[in-house]
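To illustrate the input format used throughout this study, we show a single complete record. The first block contains the structure-token representation of the backbone; no residue identities are included at this stage. The design step must infer an amino acid for every position from geometry alone.
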């Protein structure tokens, strides 16, 4: 992302270098976790985050996949719902001691995972809206229809992982 920032800055493409700055900022988050001595996330979680950043920021915005492939946006939001749901299960296992997990209802885990995925979708849509109002003007070309499709696909991805967590958790 740093090299793309420099490339598009020199080229004078203000929309793309601003997107690259956003990519630099969000890509730094897992790197900050790696600096910690007790990183709570495993490598597949971190790799999944970078896959999301690559697909949404680089391929989606910079390489214009969002403009050329109508299905790309929905696919990325679906993946994000699945990814955040998996992160939700990881956080549940990290934050809740095993003795407490054994006494926790499957419905609580289901609702936690689904709610986290839906929250991530809402926050992403806020990010897209603010980005369009301030910098790019290309993130929500479909307006409210695009926003609702994005939220629904993120919900479906999160729902799949929430159902998985419900089925896998022991009955209380």
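Output of the design step:
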């Amino acid at each position: 992302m740093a090299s793309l920032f420099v490339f598009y800055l020199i080229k004078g493409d203000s929309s793309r270098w601003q997107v690259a700055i956003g990519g630099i900022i969000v890509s730094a988050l897992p790197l900050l976790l790696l600096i910690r001595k007790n990183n709570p996330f495993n490598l597949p979680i971190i790799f999944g985050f970078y896959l999301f950043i690559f697909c949404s920021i680089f391929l989606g915005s910079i390489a214009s996949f969002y403009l050329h492939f109508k299905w790309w946006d929905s696919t990325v939001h679906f993946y994000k719902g699945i990814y955040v749901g998996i992160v939700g299960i990881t956080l549940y296992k990290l934050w809740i001691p095993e003795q407490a997990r054994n006494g926790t209802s499957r419905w609580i885990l289901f609702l936690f995972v689904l709610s986290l995925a839906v929250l991530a979708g809402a926050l992403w849509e806020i990010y897209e809206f603010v980005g369009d109002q301030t910098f790019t003007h290309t993130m929500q070309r479909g307006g409210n229809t695009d926003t609702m499709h994005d939220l629904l696909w993120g919900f479906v991805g999160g729902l799949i992982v929430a159902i998985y967590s419900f089925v896998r958790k022991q009955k209380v």
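Structural context for interpreting the output: Residues 106-134 form the longest helix (29 residues). The radius of gyration is 18 Å.
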